[in-house]
């Protein structure tokens, strides 16, 4: 409907039950914002930013971003997928700096597009790159300029430069980083990742590894390898590998 371009009150609503092919058309009594508040109420959701996400997919350019922002004022993460570089930039211009957590399905930018660098330097709490292992174009150079506190990368390729990243972190790179998670295609070689890196402590196999309130590695996992390293200022970093997953946990004060 035309009035949906501005996310105004829909004229009608449809109700159907699971397993029933028939629906009932009724006059719509609520604005979209009222529907959102109604669903949150019936599901007893109080802390909205922790449990909700706003998804913008290809074709979302037909909606007014100002109307979206005013209708859905609180959400935990903005997820963007399958949009053009130009519209991706417009979305970020509309929502930054009011978002703390951002997810990107696929990289819309070419290697030489400076808008990609402008995205990476944002002071985000968390940045999710790739859904179902599709993200390309995030390597060591991009990691070193990324200013997010938590970075989650899923790629169907391989991340080159884990060893060099650890050495640069020990010298002071990525000071805001608390968590780095990389899921890649090939099995990781622990010895190559730590080549030339001074190990402060080898974490025993019978020790759970927590970071904050999150359990990142259970004890007695035969495929897990984990060590602690130290940055020049004394900050501890934990390196964990599972067959194709790399975790780096920084114990910043």
Automatic annotation (TrEMBL):
One Pfam family in the UniProt entry: FBA_2
InterPro entries linked: F-box_Sdz-33 (IPR012885), Zygotic_Embryogenesis-Asso (IPR053222)
Domain Sdz-33 F-box intervals: 116-182
Source taxon at top rank: Eukaryota
Protein name: Sdz-33 F-box domain-containing protein
Organism: Caenorhabditis brenneri (Nematode worm)
């Amino acid at each position: 409907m035309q009035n949906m371009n501005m996310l105004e009150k829909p004229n009608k609503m449809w109700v159907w039950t699971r397993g029933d092919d028939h629906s009932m058309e009724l006059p719509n009594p609520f604005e979209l914002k009222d529907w959102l508040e109604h669903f949150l109420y019936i599901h007893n959701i109080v802390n909205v930013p922790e449990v909700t996400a706003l998804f913008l997919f290809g074709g979302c350019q037909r909606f007014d971003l100002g109307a979206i922002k005013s209708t859905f004022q609180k959400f935990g993460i903005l997820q963007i997928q399958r949009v053009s570089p130009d519209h991706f930039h417009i979305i970020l211009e509309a929502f930054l700096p009011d978002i703390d957590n951002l997810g990107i399905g696929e990289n819309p930018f070419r290697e030489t597009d400076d808008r990609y660098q402008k995205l990476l330097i944002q002071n985000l709490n968390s940045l999710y790159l790739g859904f179902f292992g599709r993200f390309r174009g995030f390597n060591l150079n991009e990691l070193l300029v990324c200013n997010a506190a938590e970075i989650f990368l899923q790629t169907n390729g391989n991340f080159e430069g884990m060893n060099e990243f650890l050495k640069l972190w020990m010298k002071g790179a990525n000071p805001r980083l608390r968590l780095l998670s990389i899921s890649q295609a090939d099995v990781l070689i622990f010895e190559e990742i730590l080549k030339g890196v001074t190990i402060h402590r080898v974490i025993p196999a019978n020790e759970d590894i927590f970071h904050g309130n999150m359990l990142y590695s259970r004890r007695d996992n035969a495929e897990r390898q984990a060590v602690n390293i130290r940055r020049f200022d004394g900050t501890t970093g934990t390196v964990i590998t599972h067959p194709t997953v790399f975790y780096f946990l920084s114990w910043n004060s």
